[in-house]
Write a structure and sequence with these properties.
This protein has helices at residues 2-15, 26-39, 42-47, 54-65, 94-98, 116-131, 146-152, 154-167, 252-264; strands spanning 21-25, 69-72, 80-83, 105-112, 173-180, 210-215, 219-224, 228-235. It is an alpha/beta fold and 284 residues long. Strands 1-8-7-6-5-4-3-2 form an eight-stranded mixed beta sheet, sandwiched between helices. Strand 7 (219-224) and strand 8 (228-235) form a beta hairpin. Helix 2 crosses helix 4 and helix 2 packs parallel to helix 9 (252-264). The protein starts with a helix and ends in a 20-residue tail after the last helix.
């Protein structure tokens, strides 16, 4: 099995020549989880909608933009606003991450793609556990290509675009941040290091400068009118440095989500913070 996966990864890398990517280090992602918890008010942190992935959008955007949001929605405004003047070095990648380089602020609207795991199975399981009842049968999901996830996002991208037109202004970069849960739509490219080269071109509604996609829990991508699709990568730029230790059955970005939840004092469970185990192996 491992040889087959290694062969698939090698073929994926061969097919990825010319793929655009933005990479940050583990230290930057770690710092983003800490600075959010330090600079945002406790009531704002606790108001984030975990089921929609608003906390994930805040964490990832803070890390890649290297700026803390100056406003977070608590009363019907734009979900996240970033002051781009406060970001060091962002000018080198503004067109890739935001679709334009002439804006001083960026407004993000966060949406998650509907799915039966979060909307039906998870609530039913939670209620059963609270009552001490037998849990529902196993959740079943069909693996699909990443492009199918992109197609399923069209409606929520359209909704985000409409809200940005109403809440934001044309002088700001307007970004839709879309979250897809793996157990709603497991995507077949999840083991590949780069997947942007496999994605079809995006044609978002008017007024959207960029679309970020988080294929939870493994891949973050961005589409911009200026650059098309790009992978957002996480790694080390120091010689022989390895990634941080994280729990068996969790992906690296889940490790950082857990850090953020802990540092922010958010005790509510996140549907994106879970472990996957292989049945029948005896491993936890």
């Amino acid at each position: 099995m491992s040889d087959s996966i290694d062969d698939d990864i090698a073929r994926s890398l061969d097919a990825s020549v010319g793929t655009k990517a933005v990479a940050i280090s583990y230290d930057v992602m770690d710092a983003a989880t800490a600075v959010l918890a330090q600079h945002l008010p406790t009531e704002t942190l606790h108001a984030m909608k975990l089921a929609s992935g608003e906390h994930l959008a805040a964490m990832l955007a803070t890390a890649y933009l290297q700026a803390v949001p100056v406003a977070v929605d608590v009363d019907g405004g734009v979900d996240l606003t970033f002051d781009l003047k406060a970001s060091d070095g962002l000018h080198l990648r503004r067109k890739t991450l935001l679709g334009r380089d002439d804006a001083e602020f960026a407004d993000f609207e966060v949406k998650s793609i509907p799915g039966t795991f979060r909307e039906k199975y998870l609530p039913a399981t939670t209620r059963a556990m609270e009552r001490g009842e037998e849990q529902p049968p196993a959740h079943l999901a069909k693996a699909v290509p990443a492009n199918n996830v992109i197609e399923a996002s069209a409606a929520v991208i359209g909704k985000a675009a409409g809200q940005l037109r109403n809440k934001s202004s044309p002088d700001r970069a307007r970004v839709a941040f879309i979250v897809s849960h793996f157990l709603d739509r497991p995507y077949v490219e999840c083991f590949q290091p780069l997947i942007s080269q496999a994605l079809a071109p995006l044609d978002p509604p008017e007024g959207i400068d960029a679309v970020w996609m988080y294929f939870a829990p493994s891949h973050v991508l961005v589409w911009s009118a200026a650059s098309g699709w790009s992978d957002l990568l996480l790694g080390s730029f120091a010689e022989e440095q390895i990634g941080p230790e994280h729990a068996y059955g969790m992906e690296l970005l889940q490790h950082y989500e857990g850090l953020f939840l802990e540092r922010a004092g958010i005790g509510k469970p996140s549907p994106f913070f879970y472990e996957l185990t292989v049945s029948g192996t005896g491993e936890e």
